[in-house]
Specification:
The structure holds two protein chains of two kinds. Chain A is mainly β. In chain A, 0% of the residues lie in helices and 58% in strands. Chain A has strands spanning 5-7, 10-13, 19-24, 31-38, 42-50, 53-57, 64-68, 74-78, 87-95, 98-104, 108-112. Chain A is globular. Chain B contains no helices and eleven strands. By secondary structure, chain B is mostly beta strands. Classes of the chains: A mainly beta, B mainly beta. The A-B interface holds A 33, 35, 40-45, 48, 55-56, 90, 92, 99-107 and B 30-31, 33, 35, 41-45, 48, 50, 87, 91, 97-105.
């Protein structure tokens, strides 16, 4: 089975712009979670989608949003980018029957200038 | 609220044994997971403990004590390739919703 894929892998944006990141989960996985990783902060949970519905949301401002499509692929969008949004954005998918095991994609490294 | 604590850095020599501790505070606890992340790589799942006790997978073992809200990852026969960051993660349920929280990670340095 193919692993979790994320596109693009690297992105450079300027303040005020918006960005859309994409994640394709492992086939058969309907849960997709998004995390922001910055040095010293670990993985901060953004949100989780299951069957096109947002099930959980972390403590991030409304500039961060996401969605999931019927094929379980997910996108996250960040509007009005700030310098502090520079980070590695990871998505992870899991089986409904084994949500404790998350399979991560390689991440999208976003740099905001 | 929910919180996890783990040491920021641990150093050990090749061939040694190292233990990375994780204490947590959460309601609706389900289980404790461990992930490994090499620099520039994605986190990869190592183990999951839902019940008290020790789970062994090759050179890696993970332990959980629910009564103490504590767990650890034990790495034996350390190899240079084990140099990485290790994250503990708690799965818990709040208001019927399953959630997952990661610790800030422990950077393990293995010295020759």
């Amino acid at each position: 089975k193919a692993g979790v894929t994320q596109t693009p892998r690297y992105l450079i944006k300027t303040r005020g712009q918006q960005v859309t990141l994409s994640c394709s989960p492992i086939s058969g996985h309907r849960s997709v979670s998004w995390y922001q990783q910055t040095p010293g902060q670990g993985l901060q949970f953004l949100f989780e989608y299951f069957s096109e519905t947002q099930r959980n949301k972390g403590n991030f401002p409304g500039r961060f949003s996401g969605r999931q499509f019927s094929n379980s692929r997910s996108e996250m969008n960040v509007s009005t980018l700030e310098l502090g949004d520079s980070a590695l954005y990871l998505c992870a998918s899991s089986l409904e029957s084994a949500e404790e095991t998350q399979y991560f994609g390689p991440g999208t490294r976003l740099l905001v200038l | 609220g929910q919180s996890l604590e783990q040491p920021s850095e641990v150093t050990a020599v090749e061939g040694a044994i190292v233990q990375i501790n994780c204490t947590y505070q959460t309601s609706g606890f389900y289980g404790l997971s461990w992930y490994q992340q090499h620099d520039g790589g994605a986190p990869t799942f190592l183990s999951y403990n839902a019940l008290d006790g020790l789970e062994e997978t090759g050179r890696f073992s993970s332990f959980l004590s629910r009564s103490d809200s504590y767990g650890y990852l034990l790495l034996q026969e350390l190899q240079m390739k084990d140099s990485a960051s290790y994250f503990c993660a708690v799965s818990h349920s709040t208001s019927g919703t399953y959630k997952y929280i990661f610790g800030t990670g422990t950077r393990l340095k293995v010295l020759a």
